[in-house]
Design a protein that fits this description.
The structure is a homotetramer. Chain A is α+β, with helices and mostly antiparallel strands. Chain A has one domain: Thiol Ester Dehydrase, Chain A, CATH 3.10.129.10. Chain A contains three helices and six strands. Chain A is elongated and about 45 Å long. Strand 2 of chain B pairs antiparallel with strand 2 of chain C.
Chain lengths: ~140, ~140, ~140, ~140
Amino acid sequence: MEEQAPFPGEVEIAETVPFYDTDCGGVVSNIAYLRYVEKARTALFAALGMEPAAMMGTGLFPVVVRTEIDYRSPARLGDGIRVSARLASVEKVRATCVFRLDATAPGGEPRHVAEAVQTVTLVRMPEGRPQRMPPEWRGAAD
Amino acid sequence: MEEQAPFPGEVEIAETVPFYDTDCGGVVSNIAYLRYVEKARTALFAALGMEPAAMMGTGLFPVVVRTEIDYRSPARLGDGIRVSARLASVEKVRATCVFRLDATAPGGEPRHVAEAVQTVTLVRMPEGRPQRMPPEWRGAAD
Amino acid sequence: MEEQAPFPGEVEIAETVPFYDTDCGGVVSNIAYLRYVEKARTALFAALGMEPAAMMGTGLFPVVVRTEIDYRSPARLGDGIRVSARLASVEKVRATCVFRLDATAPGGEPRHVAEAVQTVTLVRMPEGRPQRMPPEWRGAAD
Amino acid sequence: MEEQAPFPGEVEIAETVPFYDTDCGGVVSNIAYLRYVEKARTALFAALGMEPAAMMGTGLFPVVVRTEIDYRSPARLGDGIRVSARLASVEKVRATCVFRLDATAPGGEPRHVAEAVQTVTLVRMPEGRPQRMPPEWRGAAD
């Protein structure tokens, strides 16, 4: 992108770990991390021009076909969680999103707690037909 | 219903408390109880002839308009949970379902952990038009 | 509380409805509303001086003993959700919290979608001993 | 294992897709698959001798350090889901579990909808010290 970046290729969301995301081991459960990732990805696609509220009208939906999550260290009740989501690459019919999750206890330093990668396609519903990735997204990817 | 009861008015489901339903207080979180109730209600409506798999075709959906849950005592990781769901009353456009949740630790006695009441309507989608309750359900209710 | 109210008796949180909170009927599922309520209640108790991150240290936890939710109208994918949580009354060993949920589609007007009431006790863990409500909370309640 | 197989290396669980696991695209949401996987893994570890109900006493917990999920085709409301979980390999301080998810609509044929791999360690709490994998699990792995 020489002159302008019409689509930001990276967004960040913030959460605070609630009770229901912890488990009896005292730490945030696996499933909660995926929820944080999904929220960040939704924000990333909204930044790329795909607003969730418009999808029921356009019939064009992002569909995750693969998720990888590496859990590095535990997050705990009340930690602030920051998830950065980045469009890492765009191919003809799929895009790769990369996520980094950091947790910060009140008064503490951020700790790298997890990272994730998702492969996403675009599908036209209700036919379920795969669509090409918007070519302008390539400029947003690293 | 004089002679036969074609619809059972009560069903029971069983769960085992997984990690992700507990929280860092060491007990099952509030939200998990509602998930158990939803599962039992789905089974109750299936027994009444409303199979979930058929709803996308019929366009007729049960819609919960009110939920009450009383939490009596804590359930814990690995407890067996039994939820009994009962059609308690059927009016013209709404039905009332009553739920009782018991938890049993391995080798222990069942403890009454929660109870819930839901008010349900039937709605025809996509118009969102409320439908009358099937009159034959009255025989299933207490 | 003579002159000042050191504790705000009302807080508000905002969410955007993600995919995973909708169901195949096209609307936000029951369980998601309870999650929004839990998040708002956590924020309310933090404002009252009970920070989640400190609870594992103090051993003092709020415990919900009753939840009521009335679902007024549907919320949808991408709607902004605002939940206001208010400390409505404080008795010796229990407090009542009242929640109001409004949803706003992009470019639309807020719609009242649900309301909830929770009864909460304070429990000292691991003994599970109920505690008195802090008397200063009475000033925060309506 | 020549003569006896004290630990089964494979278990299977069954679920029926409830409303709350579908999203407004009409299909089961990503997060629900991970919940099914977690349930199957819990059953697998119970079969290997690690009963969840005993973990709070032993302080020995399985901790997932990596999850991969490939979503092959959509599952829908009311589908029966079968998850088979298999202990695929056991190394000194980690084990690999492999999951296969099939969905069956009422009256239909099973479809392969997803597969997952998890890497799991054993941790002694509250110190968080990693433990060796039980050597007898090697016989249960393929």
